[in-house]
Write a structure and sequence with these properties.
single chain, alpha+beta, Alpha-Beta Plaits, 14 helices
């Protein structure tokens, strides 16, 4: 379930309560009159099953509550009551399959912000990948994959395209367009310093065999990117963040960027172009799979909403004399 905390101006309280009173899937409805100071009005709280939350939030927005008041959403880890059971029965569907689109947009918008933290994580990941390449260490490369934060902007692009939010898609694109060059520049600088101080040499790139997959993309590279993109978007829409770790480990984005940066310093242009192609394949594959996955999820949401509407009408007709 999800918990909604609503700050409702006095003039909207009656309309909001009327909506919540007839909405399926709502439980534990409370109102504290005059508790909200900014905006001045009432505090209304409720729990709603996940499969009904998205539509309810949209209707609250249509009432003007998001502009005149506030809608705050948080997850409910455990709810034990007869009201919870009744709410689950009222709203057909399966909670893990349900999507709260406003929450997805908010999460991807936050994760795709071009910030110092994002640049720091991406740079550290690229540096780790560069070290893994020099040492021919797959373990270090995997560590770089886990540290990399690039899936957030990729998810933002996918969500922005499917939800027609051009600002969100543009934000993700700009973050990637700035982040990867910055991270690669720092990695190339570190490789240059390492070469000048004797820590690394060009011969080490020629002899690595454990990490050569990074600059040798193929059809399976695209397949992996597509599968990872689909899994990542399902994880994002369902709120199952643990699955994202597997996505990070499976895609060769940060390792390719790190490899290209190091190979550039040593003039290994074949490896540079191979790594760049690997990076491009993974980025495009993840976005394409993300868009397709979101499209399917969205269609499923529309079908489920129509079915819920038919059930509601059927129940109403049985009650009529």
């Amino acid at each position: 379930m999800s918990h909604l905390r609503l700050l409702v101006p006095a003039e909207l309280s009656a309309a909001v309560l009327a909506l919540l009173g007839r909405y399926p899937g709502v439980a534990h409805l409370t109102q504290v009159r005059g508790a909200s100071l900014a905006p001045a009005g009432d505090l209304i709280e409720l729990d709603v099953v996940r499969e009904a939350a998205d539509e309810l939030i949209e209707e609250l927005q249509q009432l003007g509550l998001s502009s005149a008041g506030a809608i705050c959403v948080s997850p409910v880890d455990l709810s034990l009551s007869a009201g919870s059971i009744r709410a689950e029965r009222q709203a057909p569907g399966n909670s893990p399959d349900s999507v709260i689109w406003q929450q997805v947009e908010s999460r991807t918008g936050t994760d795709s912000a071009l910030s110092g933290t994002f640049l720091a994580f991406l740079t550290i990941a690229a540096l780790l990948a560069g070290i893994g390449v020099v040492l021919d260490s797959p373990i270090t490369v995997v560590g770089a994959m886990v540290v990399g934060p690039e899936f957030g902007p990729l998810a933002a692009i996918s969500v922005g395209l499917i939800r027609r939010r051009p600002r969100l898609a543009r934000r993700g694109f700009v973050t990637l367009a700035v982040g990867f060059p910055v991270a690669m520049l720092f990695t190339a600088g570190a490789a240059w310093v390492g070469a000048r101080t004797g820590l690394v040499n060009a011969g080490e790139l020629a002899t690595n065999t454990q990490t050569e997959f990074i600059y040798k993309p193929g059809v399976l590279s695209l397949v992996v990117a597509l599968l990872a993109g689909a899994a990542g978007m399902l994880s994002t829409t369902s709120g199952k963040s643990a699955a994202l770790v597997g996505v990070f480990i499976s895609v060769t984005t940060v390792p390719a960027a790190g490899y290209a940066a190091v190979a550039t310093v040593f003039g290994e242009w074949h490896q540079v172009w191979g790594s760049a192609l690997q990076l491009l394949i993974n980025l495009i594959g993840i976005v394409v799979a993300g868009v397709v996955t979101l499209f399917v999820v969205r269609r499923f949401d529309v079908f489920r909403a129509a079915r819920r509407g038919r059930r509601a009408r059927s129940k109403l007709e049985t009650r009529l004399p």
